[in-house]
Design a protein that fits this description.
about 350 residues, mainly alpha, Fumarate Reductase Cytochrome B subunit, 2 domains, 3-stranded antiparallel beta sheet, binds protoporphyrin IX containing FE
Amino acid sequence: MVAFQRSWGLAAALAIALVIVVSGDALAQSGQPTSVNPTASSVKEGQLLDALKPPGSGPSAVTGRVSIPDTKSSVLIQPAGRDWRQIRQETLPFYGAIAILGMLAALVIFYLIRGRIAIDGGPSGRTILRFASADRFAHWLTASTFILLALSGLNLTFGRKLLLPLIGPEAFTALSQAGKFVHNYGSFAFALGVVLMILLWLKDNIPSGADLAWFSKGGGLIGSDHPPAGRFNGGQKVIFWVVVIGGVALSITGYSLMFPFVFTDIAGLQEANMLHGLIAVGMVAVILAHIYIGSVGMEGAFDAMGKGEVDLNWAKQHHALWVEKTEMKGKGAATPAE
Ligand code: HEM
């Protein structure tokens, strides 16, 4: 008898459950709108997302209500953050790795084919002043801080995947914290370096007809012809403008991230972060080519930024128009090398 009563009880409970499930399903299928209460504890993320209108036609976030002064904390779901995370964690590392590894591979191939670009006829033994100490200060300030910013920035993009497994969590944490410090404070010196470069070199980096001729002849990098160039050739002008435009863009996006919500809102911050990363990896790739040609890639080039003076034959080979002009002015007259 007891067993009979138990099975009746079970059957009744099953029947009630079935009625609830079927009626809920019918309600959903009838297309009746279900209202969403974002503060209800049982609300599902999916329901909240469904409640968001398509982009452009309504709010871009699900917000609740807060009584504290910081109203930003009322944002519960902000779907654009998913696109940001996707770019930050996948797109940026992917294209960043292609740009940097691709450039390194291209430089190795270029070196194997072209070798070190030599001074035709060898050094003359006479030198000419190429960069005064103010020029060299601006260059090395920008260069050293760029390298520190690049390394600490690349750690944010690739460190977790590449460094963390190698050095372990404690060392990685210490390194990343130090890197963040260097990145934040080093940025001011980098920005100053870019401003100095603009003040010192802008007038010699205005594009001219000679640049077109320089590019059309492969800039002397391809083949043995050395098209005449002024103080900076077409390729160097490209580097200059990449540093100036890229440096300004990195500063604007970087400072808006360093002082969040001061200059822009959450959408602006996400865009700034994506742009900052993409511009930075692009610049790293370009600067790798610059470092190559300014050091191992070309005989005599490093002296320009090392000592400030270059061999006269090097100068005539790569900057014939500039040598002519300098000699006419009687400035930087060639002196015998030590
Ligand atoms: C160890 C790294 C670097 C080396 C060895 C190096 C070397 C040089 C040399 C030798 C020059 C003078 C070329 C000439 O006389 O015609 C130069 C110029 C210049 N450097 Fe660097 N550089 C380095 C890093 C950087 C970095 C990181 C930046 C910027 C972020 C930079 C920006 C420039 C600019 C704008 C110029 C003038 C345009 C040009 O010559 O391309 N350099 N560099």
